[in-house]
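writing this on my phone so excuse typos. first protein, seq and then structure
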Amino acid sequence: MQNLAALSRAELIGALLAPVLPKDHPHADHVNDLESAYFGTAAVAIEASDTLLDHKLGVARELLMRDLRAQLSAGPVMNSPQALRDWLRLHCAGLQHEVFIVLFLDAQNRLLSAVEMFRGTLTQTSVYPREIVKSALERNAAAVALAHNHPSGSAEPSRADEFLTQNLKSALALVDVRVLDHFVVAGDQCASFAERGLI
């Protein structure tokens, strides 16, 4: 499958809007040539409708992720909590394993970078506070927002999640980096530690 992150916005829109004809359609080559001339990319000509749907959904997801990330970079992240939750849900959608994401923020709480730092199994991820502190210092981050997913489907934070959050908060405080929130993502749910008074 194509690396969608490497495509420009215009190429993604072209791929999303490109007509789809079966490879054996008599006009498939002609339409593909026209699309290539107009969008710079060939129209999609594939046989299986499921593959087409997966491709189109992947392109749409990439466009949404870019737009949400631009919103998060434009102003303080916590001023647009819905955009952050939407970005996290899209990032974690369909994952069958846990990931731990750190959003590094500047002094005005604007997004510097979002990094998937650790990857685990279906039920757990090993998180190393030292690596998060090191990454925060490398990026000159003033604050972080943490997130991880629960592929099991429950966004309810576990005791281990609470303990980890307190450990990370203590470790990052030693280098003057604030932990603003920790999100647990499960399907379309996104639980916030700050909203529950756990930070």
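second protein below, same order as before
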Amino acid sequence: MVQVPQRTALNGPTLIRLLARLTDADLPESRQPLSDRLSEWLGWTDAIALSTALSGNPPAVAPGARAIGRAEENECARVRAALAKAIAGDRTFAAARRRGPAHASPDGFPMDAAADYAVFRQRYLSLQQTMETDIGNLRARLRGMLAARSPGMTRLAMVDAVMERALSARERSLLSSVPVMLGARFERLRQSQEETRDAAQASGEAAAATPGAWLDVFRKDMQSVLLAELDIRFQPVEGLLAALRTS
């Protein structure tokens, strides 16, 4: 009896686990400590800036710094909800309404099967840019509030600013590969639909799958990946909020 190797169970972020499932990739978890991985991503100028932020004397704290209020908490919640709504409500990812033969070409081939992945890729990249801009602005605002608290909190804000500058290019490069991976998922789903249709036509049977259903599956997959990416991108904001609450 042939033993089918079991895939490694990942314990990482939802985005990584979701991509591993959608791409059928067996991704081994890294045994390298996080500090070692970060050292590979930081250039020597980044290392100097980080050392300065950690060991230097932070600017004097302005008097009258106020505690974090409901307004800041609400603003963070509003930005996150707006981004989630933009993803969930985007028409590109909405399931198509099917009204029988009107959605089939003259030869019976589903119109959805001729969809161009470039449309989805462009929309994904656009939403990524929106997330990067909105979250970056929010993160800078929270750093400004943190820097007005105490010398220790000022140092933390400086470290966050250095890390954002140092890792933004790396983050952008890694996340730009997500649409590429989803493109492969798109093609596999389309090919599976075509194979099902061809087999049904060869046997004279009705197609087992609803025409274009594969594209609705893909839309849902891409939407789920975007929401998981939003979670990843929002983690620094949540960290700054936590620091503000305790300062």
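Residues 67-96+109-246 form one domain. thats all i got for now
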